[in-house]
Amino acid sequence: MVIIFIIMIFVALLTYIIPAGTYDTIIDAAGEEVVDPNSFHYISRSPVSILEFFKAPLNGLKKQSSMILSVIVICSCFRVVNDTKALSNFFTAALNKLQHRAILLIPVIMTLFGILGSTGALVNSTVAFIPIGLVIASQLGMDRISAMAIIYLATFAGYGSSFMSVTSVQLAQEIAGVPLLSGAGFRAVVSAIIVLSSIYLYHSLLQQGYER
C-alpha cells in the first residue's frame, strides 16, 4: 500500500509538469468510433487537486466495481477450496493408492492446474500446491525442480494463454473498450493446445527418465 501511495503522489505531481494533450475520435467505415492518430493537440492542463487525489481511489473502485467484484468472488471461492485442503487431500489420497505408479497421475494433475490457470482461478496461489508435486517427486525419485514443474508448468502455460482470466483478459478488454470475452473460442483452442503440448512434453521426458 505504501508503494502504491507513493506512485499515486508521483503521478499526481506529474499532472503539474507534463503538458496535457488529447486525440479526437472519428467514425470509421465500419461505423465504429476510433481514435484519429493524426488529431493530437494540446489542451490546458488540469492538475489533480488534493481533494481529487484522495477521491481518485474511491472513484476508481466505483467505476470498476463489477470487475472488482468478479475478482473478489473468484479469489474467495478458491480461498475456501485452498483453506479446506480439498484438492490437496484428494491428490494425497490418490498418490497413496497409486504408490510407484504415481507417474500416471501427473497428466491428470497438470491438466487440472492448466485449466485453473487458463480460467485465471489459480495463479499466485500456485505455491500452496507445491507439496503435491513434492509428494509425487518423492514417490518417483525425482528432484525438486521436477516437482515444482508439475504444478507451475501447466498452471502458467494455461494462464499465459488464458481465454477468460478476469485479472488479465477481461480487464484488458474492458480498458481497450472491446466486448468482454470476444474471441474466447479461438483463445480457448489455443490455450488447450499450449497446455496439452506442455503436459505431453513434460510427461514424455519424465516417462523416458523413469523407464531408465
- Catalogue the unreliable spans: none
Helical residue percent band? 55-70%
Oligomer: single chain
What class, by secondary structure content?
mainly alpha
Membrane topology: Multi-pass membrane protein
Subcellular location: Cell membrane
Keywords: Cell membrane, Membrane, Transmembrane, Transmembrane helix
Organism: Candidatus Enterocloster excrementigallinarum
3D structure, described in words:
This protein has 212 residues and is mainly α. It has 2 domains: 2-60, no CATH class; 65-211, no CATH class. Helices cover 66% and strands 6% of the residues. The protein has a two-stranded antiparallel sheet. A hairpin with a 5-residue loop joins strand 2 and strand 3. Helix 4 (86-98) runs parallel beside helix 6 (130-140), helix 5 runs parallel beside helix 7 and helix 6 packs across helix 7 (144-160). The longest helix is centred in the last third of the chain and has 28 residues, at 184-211. The radius of gyration is 23 Å and the shape is elongated. The protein starts with a helix and ends with a helix. The mean pLDDT is 81.
In terms of topology, how is this protein built?
Blueprint: H1 2-14, E1 20-22, E2 25-27, E3 33-35, E4 41-43, H2 50-63, H3 65-83, H4 86-98, H5 106-118, H6 130-140, H7 144-160, H8 166-176, H9 184-211
Antiparallel strand pairs: 1-4, 2-3
Summarize the structure.
This protein is mainly alpha-helical. The protein contains 9 helices and 4 strands, in the order H-E-E-E-E-H-H-H-H-H-H-H-H.
